[in-house]
Structures are given as C-alpha cells and as structure tokens.
Amino acid sequence: MRMLLDLDTGIDDALALAFALAHPDIELVAVTGTYGNVTVEQGVANTTALLKLLGAEDIPVYAGPQREDFHVKDISQFVHGANGLGGVEVSFGAPPAQGDAVEIMKQAARDGAIIVATGPSTTVAKACDDDDFARNAKIIMMGGALTVAGNVAPWAEANVSQDPAATDFLLRTAQDVTVVGLDVTLRTVLTREQVQQWRDTGSESGKTFAEIADYYVDAYAELSPQLGGCGLHDPLAVAVAIDPSLVECLPINLKVETGEPTPGRLIGDPDRIQEPAETTRVAIGVDAQRFTADFVARLEGLFGELGQRTL
C-alpha cells in the first residue's frame, strides 16, 4: 500500500513514522508537515532527522501551511517536550524538499496513495478544494472524540481544536474518511516494559526511540495515570490504514462545531442525517491487544535490523 503521512511530528507522530517504515506492506511515498504538537518548521526538522536515524533519508518531506495565529500550547510542550521529541536530540537530516505540500498530497492520492493525517486538518482541507481529491482520496484521520471526552476541552480533541473549520470542511466534502479518535486510541497503550524491548536491541535507533517514548510515558503518568502507559494515537491510524479490521466503525456523516460555546466539538451532522450515503466512519471499538503487540514487535524488528546494518 502506498501511503502519504501528514504529521505534526511530536512523539506519537514519530512512532507512527517508524511503524510505517517497519511495516512490509506500506510504501511510504512522502511526508507532509503540519503544525500542532510543534510548529511546521520544528516538525519538518524532526521528521527529516528521524528518517535519517531510520535509514530512510530518500523519502521526501514537504512543509505544509501553518495558521498565522498558531502557537504551541503549554499542554503540547508538556506532553511532547519543547522540541516535540521529549527533549531528545536527534541529528539533523536532509532539508525539506521543494514543493507545495497540498499539491504533493493531491498527486499522491491520484497515484493511489492513502492519506494518513495525524495533526490538524489544514493541509488536507486545502487539498479537498480539489473536487477530484475530495471525491477519490482515501483518508485516515487521527483526531476527534465522539463518545469520550476531549483532551484539550471536555468537548474537543487537540488536532480538531487547532483548526475546527478545516476539519469541518474535510468531513463535509471528502467522500471516504475514517476517523480514528480518542474513542479508540486511548485504549491502545504502550508500557514502559514494552519500550524496554526497543532499548534492548542495542541499536542507536532503538535506544533513541526508547528515550523518546519514555518521556511520553512519564507525561501520561502525570496526566492519565490510570492508563498505565501512553496512548498510541497516531500509530493506530497508520495501522487502520493497512488493516481496517482492527477497529469497529460507526458510519455517520459528521460536522465540527466552529463557534462558541463548544468549538472543536465533533458531532453528527443533523443536516445530513437522512442522506443515504455516509461518507465518514468513526472508530468506536478496537482490538487493542492485537494492535499493540504487532506495533511493538515491528518496531523492535526494525531497530534490530538497523543495528545489524551498522555492525
């Protein structure tokens, strides 16, 4: 499967990137950079550095648009660290490729790539201005909270809250969207013991990703100690793209509330409730154990293989 990732590269985006590279059925054709956990500039730098660490510097990375009023939220800095990678320094990779991220995304979709978006919907929504993209692109989006509380407000999840109007436009125009939100991602948990398996590979990549993930686990220990680890938000979206059977979905036409009092609220669209075709599916159930076991093992295999290459 050809795939384009649209990342705001914080820690769970980094894990999603590694998972896409580790999965033998995924051909990662490009990464576009959005904002959210960090700025576009920082996210692109993180992505290129991680691709270098993972031996995949040939994959192009394109900087996408950023809202002029954007600023990194305090909670994002707490969860992901000031640099988005838990303060772990990773050697600089190649500079971003030259090109328009929106056009790159549209071309990838025309070439049959699935779009997996794990940050605000700004770039994907701009691509949806193109009728052909909106009609034919297959989109997996990590974001939203339909049946559970949000993580930046009782009614809003972080990615959707950064650009509610963009997500609303995406959900109203795109014809094939799967929403992988907090309803399921908070049931997929990475533990400190599983992270240790990566460190035990002895490779530079394994040790670096273990250090990054440990920071994430520590942040969750303060914010959500009941989970016993950190949520695998963005990696689950990648997994659903390659194996939809991991989740149970509710077909429903959705909208996002853009004004007060609940901006960023994901909810069924009353104006389209009787339309015969639902263009969106929301994941409401997940085979968490099957996903997490596969995720941890595939990254362990990738890190071990990279370690063998350097011997």
TrEMBL record:
GO molecular function: purine nucleosidase activity; ribosylpyrimidine nucleosidase activity
GO cellular component: cytosol
Keywords from the UniProt entry: Glycosidase, Hydrolase
GO biological process: purine nucleoside catabolic process
InterPro entries documented for this protein: Inosine/uridine_hydrolase_dom (IPR001910), IUNH (IPR023186), Ribo_hydro-like (IPR036452)
SUPFAM superfamilies for the chain: Nucleoside hydrolase (SSF53590)
Protein name, UniProt field: Inosine-uridine nucleoside N-ribohydrolase
Organism: Corynebacterium camporealensis
Gene designation: rihB
